[in-house]
């Protein structure tokens, strides 16, 4: 399953998929896009995306290794 930020926003089909899978979060970002200037919205969106991936990598389970 794709995460919210994994969808290609330039693809209309993927935008519809994202809206179907994440309706509340999608609507939140749509409302932000309407309220904020475009450059401010893009900076916020990129910061949220980077934060998500940084958190996701930090919390992913490391591979189990034998201790020698």
Helix percent band: 55-70%
- Total E-strand runs: 0
- Which assembly state applies to the chains in this document? single chain
How would you describe the shape? elongated
Instruction: Calculate the terminal CA-CA distance, rounded to whole Å.
Output: 36 Å
What number of structural domains do the residues give?
1
Our count of helices gives: 3
Q: Could you name the ranges where pLDDT drops below 50 across 5 or more consecutive residues?
A: none
Whole-angstrom Rg: 16 Å
**What is the string of SSEs from the N terminus onward?**
HHH
Q: Helices and strands: which structural class? A: mainly alpha
Average pLDDT figure: 88
Largest sheet: none
Strand content: under 5%
Account of the 3D structure:
It is a single chain. The protein is 66% helix and 0% strand. Helix 1 (12-21) packs across helix 2 (23-35). It has 3 helices and no strands. The protein has one domain. The radius of gyration is 16 Å and the shape is elongated. With 68 residues, the chain is mainly α. The model has no long low-confidence stretch (mean pLDDT 88). The protein has helices spanning 12-21, 23-35, 38-59.
What descriptors fit this protein?
68 residues, mainly alpha
Summary?
By secondary structure, the chain is mostly helical.
What is the secondary structure topology, with strand pairs?
Layout: H1 12-21, H2 23-35, H3 38-59
Helix pairs in contact: 1-2
